[in-house]
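Write out this protein's structure.
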Amino acid sequence: MYLVSERSSKNATETALGEFERVYSYVYSRVGNRADAEDLTQQVALKALPRLRDGYPELAVRAYLYATARSVMANFWSHRALAPEAELPEDLWIDGRGDELASPPLATAWLDCALNALPANYRLVLELRFLRGYSLRETAAEMGKTVGSVKVTQLRALRAAARVMPNQVCR
């Protein structure tokens, strides 16, 4: 509920119409394309204007416009990110390709050294999360801990691993 002193003397539609130039600038700064920014700002207007009621403070109207703009942009980006799916052909494998993705021997040696220098629980959380690709929930279930505990352990393990010098020689 708004106090009487917070109520705006202008109606909500006038406030919104005066704000659309700034909303356009906001959208344009996020999408970087004039045509898309104009279309998205128009969608914001179509969504927001019918729902506005007189008597709301100008700040509330502005906040609603920007919240609507964020929602419209999220929808825009989610549809833009969709890529057509296709099956990979069976004959995709080419001998010798993919070797460039293998980690260099020095990096592998450092990783082994860093992991071996860590306490067992730190080593386990890093192996599960980054080498095996487990989610936080899967890691928590595997270790018998809560998700929050896994997050803290992971942070501490990463900090401890970062302290291991890159040129440190393993014994």
